[in-house]
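Re: export button greyed out
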Amino acid sequence: MAIISTAGLARTFTTKRGPVEAVRGIDLTVREGEILGLLGPNGAGKTTTLRMLTTLLAPTGGAATVAGHDLATDPAGVRAACGYVAQSGGVDAQITVREELVTQGRLYRLPRARAGERARELARDLDLTELLDRKCGTLSGGQRRRLDIAMALTHRPKVLFLDEPTTGLDPGSRAGLWDLVRRLRDEHGTTVFLTTHYLDEADALSDRLVVVDGGVVAAEGTPAALKQEYGGSPDASLQDTFLAVTGRGTTPADAAPMTV
Ligand SMILES: Nc1ncnc2c1ncn2[C@@H]1O[C@H](COP(=O)(O)OP(=O)(O)OP(=O)(O)O)[C@@H](O)[C@H]1O
Ligand SMILES: [Mg+2]
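Workaround output, generated via the alternate export path:
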């Protein structure tokens, strides 16, 4: 069953220098319980797509449903069904990890005692228990990322959107996050829609990949199918496959000489 489905989803930004067509018509479906990896070069439209699917940004074209709720007619239903970890998270530096988690629970209308309990559960799952009474401003990059994710899980969303969740994480924290994503899927049936520039991560974690380039879907399929189709063999590297899809191989012929 499709839990996310988009048809011609598009977003054009109006700027002083004219329109920027960030997303030019994306058609995709995600099955319930699937881990979908959204790949694409910088500026391809990944973050813009996630912001539309989480109702943070209104589409300028097309339509989408998330967990049965239409983006245009039932944005509150969409918001209740999804959690979102933005590419750069925003937490308040002055308050503690516990206060941040409790406040998030209260935003989702949990009674105070339940919000405190949920904060402890999330801290345990995200390995933040030791840090509950630390000010958010003192956390390391990886610790802060885990807090961002804990906050997005407060209301047990059916769909979790993660925009570059492991950027800046050390190898141990990254492995921990992969485990968490798999556990969310296996134990709670959560659908995970994530973007990443780490192709090893996309390969290891995703059931299916969608590659966007220039605001449209350039390729999609299981990692093995994409490697077969674009890399010539199911054992091709995802790096070579990605470069073949996006045409961004740097052969000496297209490398411009440096001017400085
Ligand atoms: N508010 C905005 N106003 C104008 N242009 C924007 C705005 N937000 C995004 N864009 C442009 O839309 C395009 C897509 O941006 P987006 O952030 O979706 O890319 P991305 O695939 O997430 O890239 P990255 O891998 O660098 O995070 C880019 O050209 C970007 O400059
Ligand atoms: Mg982005």
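The CA atoms of residues 26 and 260 lie 39 Å apart. The button fix ships in the next patch.
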